[in-house]
Amino acid sequence: METPGTLFCFAHRGYRQRATENTLQAIEHALEFDIDGIEIDIWNVGGQILVKHDRRLGRLIAGSELLTEMCPNALREKLLPCGGRIPTLREVLELVANNIQLNIEIKGPNCAALVARELESYVRDNGACFEQYLISSFDHRQVYESLQLLPEVRRGALLAGIPLDLAACAESLKAYSMHLSLEFVDADLIADGKRRGLKNYVYTVNNKEDLHLIAAMGADGVFTDEPQMVMDYNAGVTAEMLMQQQGQASDRDLPQAQ
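Request: output the structure for the sequence above.
Response:
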């Protein structure tokens, strides 16, 4: 049960401070902590759903090729800085099991149908729960396609700015949540999302002062590279609330003046 005032914590690309982002190793490190969810990025590479953020090689793996033009098996043979390899979505599903929420962010084209098929297969074979998963993307067309293909899975509308109609874009997606940029997050946008029954998660929050700012705006949670920071913040909020409750209980126990 979440304590009022605490922030839902998604480990952004796993615990990327401890292992290369979007790897099984990074996810394993995240699972060691009492976080609420993990976020990963996916691409359709030759008909396989692979877990990676960048559209080209170069930042983590030498080269400059587009992922969508590569052979998936050749790509999976390449070592990442932590010594791991690019995982498949299925490998991540098996590792996460039924432990926490998994946010699957669609980065590249033509992913929605493959993701729906993979989730259906995994849930059927393992007795998992569709509500554990959250599909999000800046490409709202693929989020809408996910709604048509697998409505049981929650959907998140990713936004990089403030739309003129605020959170209205999430309604046609029948979204569960809006994922808002820290650079543009706005109290009016969050309030409009809440009026529409949406959760509001902010990315990517790695600063303590920013945690306080977005909490004051009414955000429900964050994507972060610093899960420990968010857990410490939540522990402080919980401790403060308990102290207030104890103080109120003590006041009630005091004898009343005649």
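Residues 227-253 form the longest helix (27 residues).
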